[in-house]
Structure prediction request, 353 residues.
Amino acid sequence: MTGLLELTERGLYCRPGDFFIDPWRPVPRAAITHAHSDHARPGSAAYLTADPGVAVLRHRLGDDTTIEGLPYGAEFVHNGVRLSFHPSGHVLGAAQVRIEHRGQVCVVSGDYKTAPDPTCAPFKPLRCHTFVTESTFGLPIYRWRPSAEIFADINAWWRSNQQQNRTSVLFAYSLGKAQRILASIDRSIGPILLHGAIESMVQIYRLAGLDLPPPVRATTENARDTRGQALVLAPPSSENTPWLQKFGEVSTAVASGWMAIRGTRRRRAVDRGFALSDHADWDGLLDSIAATGAERVLVTHGYAATLSRWLNEHGTSAAELPTRFIGETSSTGEPSHSEAPEEDSAQKDAPQG
Ligand SMILES: [Zn+2]
Ligand SMILES: [Zn+2]
Prediction:
């Protein structure tokens, strides 16, 4: 596909540098864009990732995993190939991987977003010859509202639930989305309780120096004491489970880009949907791709066919880059380019939104 990158049965491979990027099978050397499980698979001998992502990756892959960190922007040189990580604005430690060899520059975006997020370094497009872009929300129907408006909606929903003496339960992915919500909502409204999967990730974010409130794990006691007042953050997999019973009467909501589509909301048995995404929307994808100046774009992880066709029709040479997960559509009609983007989302079939 390019001299620098090729697709193998274990994933995207840089032959001159002899390393893989986000491989889906065990390899000797893996460069990892971020710790969501459709990008960070276990079993490789050695992992390299951006410094702020090391603790998150270790939490996901296990303490005995060999992981090295590289500061954003620093170069790792191997066989004459220069590799560096650059913020992708997706979750803590998420990075674009830039590789340079004999004057050719190739950038693999991983997942990225252009909207502001106080919990991670902002995405910055990099000039390159070849850009490998994600396309999770690569359809023109996906256009995000300003995130400040969405957080105002979440605050208002929480307050109105309090007036009706209902506990607010908000389902959000445990890595990234939950911390972004925690950092952005109005903490003065009431107590906030966390599911254990979110609480442990919040601890890691706090150790990384992020301004998040001391996490409180939901227990039978504090759930009872805060009934009708609390906001509970829980992973999507806890939807419809007995774990929710301790909160009494609840109003439920999902925070995900998939909620932008009315039908998706209806299929999920929740009261509200907040279209808050950690991915670029259609305009964000197009603007970012244009800003790289890339003469060739490879589209992966999502609506690759639609986005690459659009690019080709508008003067940019583009092609789909298949992933192991492409071509499956879940029973809910949401694309499932990822088997289990998060340990807590397997039952929902959709990539973390
Ligand atoms: Zn991701
Ligand atoms: Zn992804």
